[in-house]
Amino acid sequence: MRRHVPKYAEHHAQVIADMARRQISVESSGSELYRVVVREERGTTTHAVTVKAEDVARYAPGVTPERLLQASFEFLLEREPASAILSRFALPVIERYFREYPDVIKRNGVIAAPRVRAWAR
């Protein structure tokens, strides 16, 4: 007897597999502008995203802009391919396209990346 797997479970499994094959890197320009590079099997996309201090305070207080951007791109990539993400935008623009963005980011608890100490020689 074959076990029935719900469609949402198949989709969730595909999202997890896609996340494992993708790399999101975030680089600061030293100001409010960040460069986000998404590398996937299908290619690489580059995005210039403006993140202001008030954006971080609103969406994920206490975390770095880089971590908020990482979580924001994970959110976007669960909903659309990297090639569909705007090449240049301000972080609050996400909410105009996806009204659930603030709630999902807050509910999922954007966690700051652990601080790594350099090894002493």
Segments where pLDDT lies below 50 for 5+ residues?
A: 112-121
| Chain-averaged pLDDT | 83
Shape annotation: globular
Helix count, per DSSP? 5
Number of domains: 1
Portion of residues in beta strands equals: 15-25%
The SSE string, one letter per element, is HEEEHHEHH
Describe the structure.
Helices cover 38% and strands 21% of the residues. It is built from five helices and four strands, in the order αβββααβαα. A hairpin with a 4-residue loop joins strand 1 and strand 2. It is globular and about 35 Å long. The chain starts with 6 loop residues before the first helix and ends in a 14-residue tail after the last helix.
List the helices and strands and how they pair.
Elements: H1 7-20, E1 23-28, E2 33-40, E3 43-50, H2 53-59, H3 65-77, E4 88-90, H4 93-97, H5 101-107
Parallel strand pairs: 3-4
Antiparallel strand pairs: 1-2, 2-3
Summary of the model, kept short:
By secondary structure, the chain is an alpha+beta fold. It is built from 5 helices and 4 strands, in the order αβββααβαα.
Short key terms for the protein model shown above:
121 residues; alpha+beta; globular; disordered C terminus
